[in-house]
Amino acid sequence: MDFNFTEEQSMVRDTVASFLADKYDFETRRKIVSSDSGWRADYWKAFAEELGILGASFSEELGGLGGGAVDNMIIMEEFGKALVIEPYLGTVVIGGGFMKHSGYAGAASVIEGVVGGTTTIAFAYAEPQARYTWRDLKTTAKKDGGGWVLNGHKAVVVGAPFATHLIVTARTGGAQRDAGGVGVFLVDKSLPGIVTRDYPTVDGNRASEVYFENVSVPADALIAEDGLALVDKVIDEATAAVGAEAVGVLRKLHEGTLDYAKQRKQFGTAIANFQVLQHRMVDMFIEVEQSVSMTYMATIKLEEDAAERAKAVSAMKVRIGRACKFVGQNAIQIHGGMGMTDELAIGHYFKRASLIEGLFGSVDHHLKRYESLSFDAAA
Amino acid sequence: MNLDFSPEDLAFRDEVRAFIAENYPAGLREKQEEGEEMAKEDFLSWHRVLAKKGWVAPAWPEKYGGPGWTSVQRYIWSEETARADCVPILPFGINMVGPVIYTFGTPEQKERFLPPTLSGDIWWSQGYSEPGAGSDLASLKTKAERFTGDDGKEYYLVNGQKTWTTLAQHGDWIFCLVRTDPNAKIQEGISFLLIDMKSPGVTVRPIITLGGEHEVNEVWLENVKVPVENRIYEENKGWTCAKFLLAHERSGIAGVARSKRGIERIRQIASTELGDDGAALIKDPMFKRKVAELEIDLTALEYTELRTLAGEAAGKGPGPESSLLKIKGTEIQQRITELVLEAAGHYGAPYFRGFPTDGDNAHPIGPDFAHRAAPTYFNVRKTSIYGGSNEIQRNIIAKMVLGL
Ligand SMILES: Cc1cc2nc3c(=O)[nH]c(=O)nc-3n(C[C@H](O)[C@H](O)[C@H](O)COP(=O)(O)OP(=O)(O)OC[C@H]3O[C@@H](n4cnc5c(N)ncnc54)[C@H](O)[C@@H]3O)c2cc1C
Ligand SMILES: Cc1cc2nc3c(=O)[nH]c(=O)nc-3n(C[C@H](O)[C@H](O)[C@H](O)COP(=O)(O)OP(=O)(O)OC[C@H]3O[C@@H](n4cnc5c(N)ncnc54)[C@H](O)[C@@H]3O)c2cc1C
């Protein structure tokens, strides 16, 4: 049994942590979020060139540092602690994930762009009618000569305003909710016919509604013609990475609350002395620690077969979703009126935690998936 | 025991319904439906309609301008206004300072302040909390020192800072707790003062909250001159008024009728939004169960409130039981906002404040209800904090009801 990180992994963590401590304090982050572009392209370049972290989770043959999901976990947790906006999840975890697992011919060159910081990717999978069922697709891909023509509407594509490329799911066959015929495409975002409407999200991120209006893509845009299993795998990896980000967010919510409670005086004493708040903070601590455990568990099990992997990830997401709600709400409560202000960081962590609750599936969604994998499948 | 409405009550209900249908300001309804921010006049327009009709202060005694309704009629009123999505009447004048003035004020004070409070000509703000005095309200530091003015009249010179003052950016007057005797035991040196916010030395600064709203403020009081006749009740006995007001504030906070309407809205939303399996979300067993549990909890709260109302009708003022209503009422309000956000799915994420929504009607982003789902969820976290936090309410029940 070993929950320790390798020397390389510890180094990645320290490098990221010290960069963020220097350059991503809360005030800087506030400026980034409210700037026109909504992110720091120069930081992204620094992640690639100075820190080298964009390659941490790719094999050496692909120009990376030889790591994997654990490296993503480490980086996402640090990003969670600083509420980093830059699109590591979409570009490295999701974009990189599709490249690693698909046998896509162009994978090596895409990864080169990712590792070098020149290619940024957003994942256009959700649709307005589909909720968390990603195979529910109205977007279509029709064969056209050697290439394909895409039509459809993708909802809340996080990071799309910063992306050079989109990974798009679209029906290459089958009916709207079929398991078969889920195609996956890598699409240059500047292609004619791609219309985006960009907007901020409540947690300070940027997203787009993306409309495909007869968009012609070349044959080599196709990553998989019938790729639901691939999509499931990559989304599970992304969900585990978001769990790690949540761990970073939760740790900050908990620490910030302890600090505040020790320093805020009412009735002639620090409010941390009230037993009801102590027990609440103990319960928050328990939620945080169990979230850490579940994130480790899910990350390790990403290598297992599809059913085991899915079960582990759903179990993790249920716990993480509950922890986000419990820890987030109580952090605000224990801060009293101060918790309600935009000025303090705590509220911004709460907002991120609140969106993570629903990201890649709500608690209910994952509970149902867990139930069906754990009871129905066995029967 | 009888919970049925009498024929008179039913007739009253019809009268109320018809009145709302005919008189609710149309422009206001539009603004609400669009989710637009309310200006001062928006809040006041419905207030003024009701004031003219004599219905703005259902709980006030008739001799001060109340409609003389029974508690059942008041209950019907809150049901009907919530059902029709009427904007709430702001509590600071009608539910809070008004009852303090008619209970503790002098005849002159009643005559001076009650009519404009009813008509909406005075917008009241509540100046209780201070940076160092939140839950521990009695530790407040704002000082009021007596002096004789050049005109030979008696004044207080007020210095200090109030905070979290709701909608004080619109305020005409603020009712404040101030320290008039720094040497007395903390609850005994406090007085209840009415301060004209146009007085020199009053500064209001905005505090922006999580959903991006400007709802609360800091209020700075620097050498503000306040005539002694603006003090309600005796000097150094303001704590009596303060506690009386808080009990009134808390009973209003339960919001049963509005929560009923909130649950009805969730049912509507969830019958058009689709769940994971492509059927209406309300058919999803897990979502349905949460709505059912919420309804059951709200029923328990409703009947508890009815028992309190019956007690009040029998002459018992709102006591520490109102803490129970506050705790459960606010928890339910918060759960309603959680479910709305949950129903929004991906479309809970887009942020619309200050974001141009017009000019590009071709592609609306997500369903309309979703636009305010997350900001409302964040904003409503306040309800378990303000009006005496839910922890403080539990302390009150422990002490006053359970004798612990
Ligand atoms: C089935 C059973 C088997 C047991 N077996 C053994 C045994 O083999 N050997 C042995 O030595 N003992 C044994 N015990 C005794 C057990 O350790 C005591 O019951 C336990 O320590 C609690 O003490 P108490 O019953 O006096 O409760 P109390 O200490 O009186 O506590 C009563 C309640 O007050 C709470 N409370 C107390 N102090 C605080 C505080 N500071 N803050 C908040 N809450 C507080 C407690 O949590 C509890 O809810 C057993 C008890 C049971 C029920
Ligand atoms: C949106 C909003 C609007 C408001 N509007 C007004 C207004 O118009 N006028 C006005 O005067 N005030 C207003 N308030 C202030 C409100 O009444 C205070 O925020 C509230 O009393 C809590 O005080 P605090 O914020 O200082 O928190 P604190 O008192 O610092 O409390 C912090 C935490 O400690 C807990 N705590 C404190 N003491 C104890 C204890 N003894 N036992 C257990 N737990 C404890 C609290 O429950 C809370 O969770 C408003 C607040 C908000 C958020």
Order of helices and strands of chain B: HHHHHHEEEEEEEEHHHHHH
Read across the widest sheet of chain A, the strand sequence of neighbours is 1-4-5-8
What structural class do helix, strand and pairing data of chain B support? Answer: alpha+beta
SS summary, helix count of chain B = 12
Gyration radius over CA of chain A: 21 Å
The CATH architecture of the largest domain in chain A would be: Up-down Bundle
- Remind me, CATH topology of the largest domain in chain A? Butyryl-CoA Dehydrogenase, subunit A, domain 3
Structural class, judged by helices and strands of chain A?
A: alpha+beta
Q: Largest interface, by Cβ-Cβ below 8 angstroms: which chains and how many residues each?
A: A-B, 52 and 53 residues
Main pleated-sheet profile of chain A: 4 strands, mixed
Number of domain units of chain B: 3
CATH class wording of the largest domain in chain A: Mainly Alpha
CATH class categorisation of the largest domain in chain B: Mainly Alpha
Estimate the helix proportion of chain B, in percent: 40-55%
Please supply descriptive tags for the structure shown above.
heterodimer, A: 379 residues, alpha+beta, Butyryl-Coa Dehydrogenase, subunit A, domain 1, Butyryl-CoA Dehydrogenase, subunit A, domain 2, Butyryl-CoA Dehydrogenase, subunit A, domain 3, 3 domains, four-stranded mixed beta sheet, four-stranded antiparallel beta sheet, 10 strands, 52% helix, globular, B: 404 residues, 8 strands, 14% strand, binds flavin-adenine dinucleotide, flavin adenine dinucleotide binding (chain B), Mycobact_Acyl-CoA_DH (chain B), oxidoreductase (chain B)
